[in-house]
Design brief:
Blueprint (H helix, E strand, L loop, with lengths): L9 H20 L13 H8 L12 H17 L5 H27 L4 H31 L3 H5 L4 H24 L19 H6 L11 H13 L4 E7 L14 H9 L7 E7 L4 H11 L6 E7 L2 H7 L5 E2 L5 H13 L10 H11 L4 H11 L5 H8 L9 H14 L3 H9 L9 E2 H10 L11 H14 L4 E5 L5 E4 L2 H11 L3 E4 L13 E4 L8 E2 L9 E4 L6 E2 L4 H7 L5 E4 L16 E4 L19 E3 L21 E3 L21 E2 L1 E3 L18 E6 L7 H5 L9 E7 L6 H5 L6 H7 L8 E5 L8 H4 L8 E5 L17 E5 L6 E2 L1 H4 L4 E2 L5 E5 L6 E2 L6 E2 L5 E5 L15 E5 L3 H10 L5 E5 L20 E5 L18 E5 L19 E5 L20 E5 L12 E3 L6 E3 L6 E2 L2 E2 L38
Parallel strand pairs: 1-3, 1-4, 2-3, 8-9, 9-11, 10-12, 11-13, 13-14, 14-15, 15-16, 16-17, 18-19, 19-20, 20-21, 21-22, 22-23, 23-26, 24-27, 25-28, 26-29, 29-30, 30-31, 31-32, 32-33, 33-34, 34-35
Antiparallel strand pairs: 5-7, 6-7, 36-37, 38-39
Length: 1075
């Protein structure tokens, strides 16, 4: 953190500094209130402490699979009256066997952790069940190819031959299952032991919410750390917090990651605070090299280290380290109560307290364990349930490290088996991987992990599972986007637990790791990076059920025919890949339920995809050149997700899409002109999340539009309406606009909508459902409506955060009709964009009314007639394209808290008044593009906080403006297209003590740079080039970046610059390229 400058700013600087320090320390010392430790080491380290093998913890989870098979058998008997002879007999025998097995499965899955024999038995059963599932899949797929029901097929040719063939396959599978089922007797398994039940007590669920900002039991440690950091005046102080995993050394500091990376790049000469979290390195040589780079900072810099190893703490610290102890009994009980009952709520049954205190005592004062226990018990209200947790045998594990894993394991054991499957499958993703909710549910469905429950759709059941895993902190960092997309992450330590459970089946290949794939692997995720040079021999892979090749993967596959390889993986249920596969591939993948392409070059998909009758998910996001879908897509009756995000070249939809009644996600629909491709295909689809409808110029009238039935789609969150789209957009851009208004009136969405975009609408008025504000939950609105001369009263929308107004050429005034009759209009609006409103003259406000109290970002572009604007004191970011001096003065005079200002002029160069930024002491980023800026300008005076300065196309600028040398906070300086620029500065750049990046392009008259172009890196002491040569290509100079190419340290430019440019070498202007 930079030190305060000037006596007048000392107080403010100290307050800011103290607040910043407190923020860091609160995060570091957080005692587990947000779950567990943020950067726990890999489970292999923990398992070394347990002295157990990873396989000992792995679970064989068969219950959900058996349930799926029984449901499939029920479906066959229910739908097929033609089953007869030996085939029917074998299927009935299988049903009885699996029903018998199902009765003891829960007890077996509970006991497998202590019995290797039971675990092996379950795995054998699992493999046999997989084989049988494939047989049933083949049976149903062949039947679907010949008709909608199996009876249709049996009325065709060779029914006896088919029945005989299937009977033999089913008999072989049944005999294998019978042999395994018979072995259950020797394990003395109990029948009728029920699954874990997820209670739906809404009062308890609501009260379990926790304010993550509260910290319990760490006040002394936090205060001591803050005091040490603020009083530090040494060159570099290193503090260590030492303790075992789960004590709360770390925290969720993800939001600070970008800030930390920014600080690391610019350490030189700065006073900084860096957190090195969860350090395991014991090599003094490696630490000394890092410490050498850290010592380049300013006096008072500090590093905080969290570690579990005392040896590491002793090696790194410069002051005595702090050993973090366990929570006291009182703090432990407070944390437990807060997790179970919530803050400030009734503590429930008084009889539970003594049991709860005993459970807390067993947690040993470890916040991670306490929080996990609280998560289990927050949904349990019976005394017997609490006693069951207290008396669990899992507490028999000894020592503190074992206790943490025991608690996490106990949380896992209290999940139903199908939910354990879903949780442990997440181990296939890399750590810190951002997972989409619908992606997870699609993968769970494809692998048969989600059981059917009555009439509940598998998608809805998957959503319940996701919510429960979230509530119990197995999935964290939940982020719901305005378009309905939900993302999450898995905590590192939780990921380790999942890996220990499912590691024998789920295999993750990451860059620079040994590529050893176990023979038991069923699910493979290949995760790559641009630096990876690994080679994977696909031909030696075991039969897989999931193959996910990450879109960022750069692995080399040593196989000549990928299509042939994938065709031979006949058991695949999940395929996620890039590249182009032949039409023949999909004819052999009858079991496929999840298919994702990420090929930006593909224009059409193989027609054989239409034969994948089991397909549930078809994800084509980022297929930017895709123009058409398979014609037979309507045959995929089980399809639930069709993801067409960013498929912007799609020109049509296959006919009959409305027949896909199971479809829940359809991100894009192109309205066609022909029968079967109209907007009425959307009528019966219960869509969720995001929907973009393009080609609305093909809708003939309001009756057609109303048949889309948008008003009944209550789970839609984002709706985009385009009157043209794709390749045929030109044919729609001049369409007759006589029916646009009635069409838009009939496209009224459900009130639950959060995002609305209307583009290329040719009507002159907005629909009644917008004027009457029948969408009260809108958070984001984007309008491209060039013939509308008035806006709806959007100021009344209490949740609106983002408003974009584009190309509204008929709009002349934004006045009271825009605000609505409210005491405070636009109470939540944060971002406002107005672009190409060519007739807009006035933007007025109403006296006595509070407008835009939270507006922080404003963009005004190409509004040449605008002369009057409101006072917007809350603005932090302002960007203006092509505005006059009056507008600039009006905006900048009132918005004195700006941190970012971008000014662009694309017509005749306009002068900027010298006093324009006189009051903007908080400005950090300034971009001036196309203005007449002179070297004598005092524009930069008083901008003491400026960190980034970009001067673009300032044609009259001969040298950098005066006042530049006073910008001691300036870190980045970029000069583009300043054709008159001869020298960088009158006094050089030596006073820019923070400058770390200088970029120069297209400055044709600048022919000299500092002569000291080679110096020693202060971090690794190797020779580095500070400047690229000023070679030019038609006056375009290469970018100069000052970073050591040996150790990647960003260097402090001012350390290497001469006091002046006198005597610096001149460059001969290079010849232009020929031709």
């Amino acid at each position: 953190m930079p030190s305060a400058r000037g006596k007048a700013n000392d107080s403010t600087a100290n307050i800011s500094k103290e607040q910043s320090a407190k923020k860091f320390i609160e995060y570091i010392m957080l005692d587990g209130m947000n779950g567990e430790e943020q950067h726990a080491h890999q489970l292999s380290k923990l398992l070394e402490a347990f002295q157990v093998e990873r396989a000992d913890m792995a679970d064989a989870l068969v219950s959900a699979l058996v349930s799926t098979i029984l449901n499939n058998l029920d479906s066959l008997f229910r739908e097929e009256v033609g089953l007869a002879g030996s085939l029917k007999t074998e299927l009935e025998s299988l049903q009885r066997t699996f029903t018998t097995i199902q009765a003891v499965l829960h007890d077996a899955e509970q006991k497998q952790w202590k019995s290797e024999a039971i675990k092996i038995w379950l795995r054998n059963l699992q493999q046999a069940a997989y084989d049988l599932e494939d047989v049933l899949d083949d049976f149903q797929s062949q039947a679907q190819e010949r008709g909608s029901k199996v009876t249709t097929f049996f009325s065709l040719q060779n029914p006896l031959l088919f029945r005989s063939s299937m009977a033999r396959r089913v008999k072989a599978a049944r005999e294998k299952v019978d042999a395994i089922a018979a072995e259950r007797i020797k394990f003395h398994l109990e029948t009728g032991v029920g699954e874990a039940v997820i209670e739906g007590n809404k009062d308890r669920e609501t009260s379990s919410l926790v304010d993550e900002s509260e910290v319990i039991g760490r006040a002394d440690e936090k205060g001591e750390m803050i005091s040490m950091i603020l009083s530090n005046r040494d060159d570099l102080s290193i503090y260590a917090i030492c303790g075992m995993g789960g004590l709360g050394k770390s925290c969720d500091i993800q939001d600070l990651d970008p800030l930390q990376r920014h600080l690391v790049k610019q350490l030189v000469g700065k006073r900084f605070l860096i957190v090195l979290d969860d350090v395991w390195n014991e090599s003094r040589d490696k630490w000394d090299r890092l410490k050498q780079a850290l010592q380049s900072g300013g006096r008072g810099s500090a590093v905080i280290v969290t570690t579990r190893l005392e040896k590491v703490a002793l090696m790194m610290v410069t002051v005595p380290f702090r050993r973090l102890g366990c929570l006291s009994d009182d703090d432990s009980w407070s944390l437990f109560k807060q997790t179970v009952f919530g803050m400030g709520t009734n503590e429930g049954n008084a009889d539970l307290e003594p049991i709860g205190r005993q459970i807390v005592q067993r947690c040993g004062g470890i916040p991670l364990a306490i929080k996990a226990m609280g998560s289990i018990l927050s949904s349990k209200s019976q005394e017997s349930e609490w006693l069951h947790v207290r008396d669990s045998e899992i507490w028999d594990l000894e020592d503190e490290v074992n206790r943490i894993l025991a608690v996490l394991r106990l949380s896992y054991e209290h999940l139903p088996s199908y939910m354990r499957q879903c949780f442990s499958f997440c181990s296939i993703f890399p750590k810190d991987y951002v997972m989409e909710k619908d992606e997870l549910i699609g993968l769970w469905m494809a692998n048969g992990f989600i059981p059917s429950r009555g009439q509940l759709d598998l998608h809805d059941m998957g959503s319940e599972i996701f919510s429960e895993l979230t509530r119990r902190s197995f999935l964290q960092e939940i982020n719901e986007h305005v378009d309905g997309t939900v993302t999450c992450k898995m905590h590192d330590l939780i990921h380790d637990v999942a890996t220990s459970i499912k590691g024998y089946e789920c295999c993750l290949i990451e860059p620079n790791e040994r590529l050893k794939i176990p023979k038991t692997a069923c699910h493979l995720f290949v995760h790559g990076s641009s630096s990876s040079t690994n080679i994977i021999n696909l031909s030696k892979l075991p039969p897989l059920r999931s193959l996910i090749l990450d879109s960022n993967s750069r692995f080399t596959f040593n196989i000549s025919n990928p299509s042939n390889f994938i065709s031979n993986q006949k058991h695949l249920k999940v395929l996620d890949c890039g590249g182009r596969l032949s039409n023949a591939v999909f004819k052999s993948l009858k079991h496929l339920r999840y298919l994702r392409f990420h090929d930006s070059y593909v224009k059409a998909l193989p027609e054989s995809i239409s034969s994948l009758h089991n397909l549930q998910t078809l994800n084509l996001q980022w297929c930017r050149n895709l123009q058409k879908l398979p014609k037979g897509l309507k045959n995929l009756k089980n399809l639930k997700y069709l993801d067409l995000r960013d498929c912007n070249e799609l020109i049509s939809m296959p006919v009959g899409l409305g027949q896909l009644t199971c479809l829940r996600k359809l991100s894009k629909f192109v309205v066609g002109k022909d029968k079967g491709g109209g907007i009425d295909e959307l009528k019966e689809l219960a869509l969720e999340g995001e929907l973009s409808i393009t080609g609305l110029c093909n809708v003939k009238n309001s009756t057609e539009a109303k048949n889309a039935n948008l008003i009944e789609k209550k789970n839609l969150r984002s709706l985009e309406l385009y009157w043209r789209s794709g390749k045929y957009s030109e044919s729609c851009c001049h369409h007759e606009h006589g029916n646009d208004e009635e069409v838009l009136d009939a496209l009224q969405p459900h009130p639950s909508l959060k995002k609305l975009c209307i583009t290329d609408y040719q009507g002159v008025r907005f629909p009644n459902w917008m004027i009457d504000l029948l969408l009260p939950n809108l958070v984001e609105i984007e309008l491209h409506c060039k013939r509308c001369d008035q806006l709806p009263p959007l100021g009344k929308l209490g949740f609106l955060k983002v408003l974009s107004i584009w190309e509204m050429g008929a709009l002349k005034c934004m006045d009271s009709g825009f605000y609505g009759d409210m005491e405070s209009s636009f109470p939540s609006l944060e971002v406002l964009t107005i672009v190409r409103a060519s007739c807009l003259e006035e933007w007025t406000t109403t006296n006595g009314t509070k407008h835009f109290p939270r507006l922080s970002s404003l963009t005004i572009a190409h509004c040449p007639k605008m002369v009057k604007l409101p006072m917007l004191r809350s603005l932090k970011e302002l960007e203006v394209f092509g505005a006059n001096v009056t507008v600039l003065n009006s905006l900048t005079m009132n918005a004195t808290n700006l941190t970012s200002l971008r000014l662009h002029e694309y017509n005749e160069p306009m002068s900027i008044p010298d006093g324009l930024l006189r009051s903007h002491k908080h400005l950090e980023t300034l971009w001036i593009n196309g203005f007449s800026l002179k070297s004598s300008s005092v524009l930069l005076d008083n901008l003491y906080s400026l960190k980034c300065l970009i001067l673009h196309r300032c044609s009259q600028l001969e040298s950098l403006p005066r006042g530049l040398q006073n910008l001691s906070c300036l870190e980045t300086l970029r000069l583009y297209g300043c054709e008159s620029l001869v020298s960088l500065a009158v006094n050089g750049l030596q006073d820019l003590s923070s400058l770390s990046s200088l970029e120069i392009q297209s400055c044709g008259k600048l022919t000299s740079l500092p002569e000291r172009t080679q110096q020693k890196c202060i971090a690794c002491y190797k020779t580095v080039c500070l400047f690229d040569k000023l070679t030019a290509d038609n006056r375009v100079f290469h970018k100069a970046c000052f970073r050591c190419h040996h150790c990647r340290t960003t260097l402090k430019l001012s350390n290497y610059l001469d006091k002046s440019f006198e005597g610096t070498p001149k460059m001969a202007r290079p010849e232009k390229h020929r031709g």
